[in-house]
Amino acid sequence: MKRAKDIMNNRDPFILRNSDTIVYAAQEFRMRKIDGAPVLDEKEELNGIFSKGHIIGAIAQGLSGITKVSELMSSPVITVTEDTLLQEIWKAKVGTLPVLDEKGKVVGIITRNDVLLSLIYYTEQSRDQLQTILESTYNGIIAVDRKGIIKIWNSSAERIIKKAAKDTIGKPVMDVIPNTRLLETLNTGESEYGGKLQIGKIIAVTNRAPIVKDGEIIGAVAVIQDISDFEKIASELKNSRQLNKELDAIIDSVYDGLFITDGKGFTTRLNKSYTRISGIQAKEVMGKHIQELVDTGYCSEGVTPSVLEQKKAVTIMHTVKGHKKLLVTGNPVFDDDGEIIYVVTTARDMTDLINLKEKLDKTKELTRIYHLELEQLRKQQMSETEVIGQSKAIKNVLDISDRVSHIDATVLISGETGVGKEVIAQYIHKRSPRNKGPFIKVNCAAIPENLLESELFGYEKGAFTGAHINGKPGMFELANTGTILLDEIGDLSLGLQAKLLRVVQEKEITRIGSTSVKKVDFRIIAATNVDLEKKIIHGVFREDLFYRLNVISICIPPLRQRREDILLLVKHFLDVYNKKYNYNKQFNLLALDELIQYDWPGNVREIKNLVERLVILTSDEVITCEHLKGLIRKSNQMPNTNDWDNGLTLDEAIAQVEKRLILKYLIKFRSTRKAAKELGTSQSTVIRRAQKYGLNLPK
Q: Are 677 and 665 in contact (CB under 8 A)?
């Protein structure tokens, strides 16, 4: 854009002083052919402007020719600088304007006529330049006025749309190209970029923008680019890239190593498996000839030269990097003229195959050993889970267990520590339809509360700090199709009780860190050595969970309430540990009697531990009362005053003493006749009373 300095008349304008007369000014104007001049004061500073108009005014007023210009001049004066734009000067609407430099000195004069001529020239020049640009641009340009009438249609638009400008300019754009959306641009005033435009067989991209003047939309312009060729090339390029990507994925997913050379033996490619097998990185060998790789020790010999020579597949065994043996097969790839263009070599690490065979042999042997051990464990487990006892109480427990084993209902087993709750749970499982499924035991008291939930429900990878990278199934999942024993259920926190209730009701679980629900199929057997109903009263056990678990209730009485089972248990464990440690230990009668009289607070578990300890520690073949000292606490069993304190009636106390006396002498003499003699009664009475109390009679 032009400025004042580009069009001002001269760099040394004619100057008037305050004291100059109007006659002098008129003579100078006539001689210099100018319309006016700036007037300076005594300080050589701009004071006003004096023009032909002032002279005409003086004549009209009849003023004397010696009148000073300072009396008629216009002041103050509108001035411009050398850098003022012509548009700004035109807005001033002043006939003559002094031009000042940066120091305020007058350096030129501009008239309104000068500005007008310059603007006309500049506009024509800009129009010509714009027309040249419009015609020379590769993109089609279409412009419409406010009514949608085409005003501009350049030569590229003619080429793209196949319509001449003379046939389109002056016509409504909707009649020429209905889908240009220029009318929408006129209505909305919003620019649109990158829209696709279908014109016949031509695919174009168009950008549209409104033409705005003084805040008003006066038209719209569209720039159109033919991308038909680009679309075709882009589609072909996309297909080519996709094909290459798929081929790369296929090559890299092949388990065997692939080593590819061109028809001259230069390396062009190797896949990830080849790097894994050989230890050779692609950057080490790319572009190198196969013979160079042999010479530098990358491989003992190359199969490629043989393939190129024989023009057929060749298989050899070679060594890479001096230590790894590979079985390699080179396959030629021919062009249409029968010339080899590639040699594709597959490589397989024979070490892996040998190791795999060795592992397979070891696995087979381990499987055989595990099978034998499993059979032994099953036999041992069957013996360990065998319920020992002949008392009415234990027979009643077994009777209930037999009946509920075939019913897939929840069972709650209660009893003191060591009475054999787990044994009864396994007894039920082995006789149930789920006996081929797993039997999983969880001790709710033995696992810290912060770990118990993850142990029961499992977790996904990343569920918490320290979680296994692949996640872990919980006990509920592991028990699927089988039975899970929740021992010491009374120690479960209220939070986990709520989650367990959902498992019992819905038979579904959600791993920690997961949102997906898994269906599970197992039987729940719960066990406790505490009074859950008291815990409900104290608010530490959920009543709804209790009723869900207590569908079938089995209470195992302690040994002190079924003393007739003590000898059977002692004999059973004595046989087990004699066989295990290769001994032949026996108890004498007094020792057995003392064991019978003992209350066994630890129940069956205490008997088991005591018998094993005695078998190991006693040096004698016969275990006596002396060996029991310090191992059991003696109690006065004849009669048991503790039982009296528990509210026995006189008849009950007499029956208890009678039962214990009969049992004592049956054990001692192994004869009902001798026992009767010692007790001072008849043999028939001893037999009748023994049967009454459920005691085993000697054979």
A: no
Instruction: For residue 363, count CB atoms less than 10 angstroms from its CB and return exposed for 0-12, middle for 13-18, buried for 19 or more.
Output: exposed
DSSP of 276-341, one letter per residue? HHH---HHHHTT-BHHHHHHTTSBS--SHHHHHHH-S-EEEEEEETTTEEEEEEEEEEE-TTS-EE
Using alpha carbons, list the distances in angstroms from residue 184 to 157, 169, 195, 215, 472: 20, 20, 13, 18, 61
The two beta strands, 411-414 and 523-528, are parallel
Most distant CA pair in the chain, distance: 181
Whole-number Å distance between alpha carbons of 51 and 72? 9
Q: Tens of pLDDT along 525-563?
A: 999 999 999 999 989 999 999 999 999 999 999 999 998
Cβ-contact 452, 496 below 8 angstroms? yes
- The DSSP code for 513 is T
Helices (H), 154-222: 155-161, 173-176, 182-188
Model-level pTM? 0.42
496 and 453 Cβ atoms separated by less than 8 Å: yes
Are the C-beta atoms of residues 132 and 205 closer than 8 Å to each other? no
Structural domains of the chain sorted by starting position, each given as residue range(s) with its CATH number in brackets? 4-119 (3.10.580.10), 137-226 (3.30.450.20), 256-353 (3.30.450.20), 386-557 (3.40.50.300), 574-692 (1.10.8.60)
CA dihedral defined by 272, 277, 281, 287, rounded to 10 degrees? -80
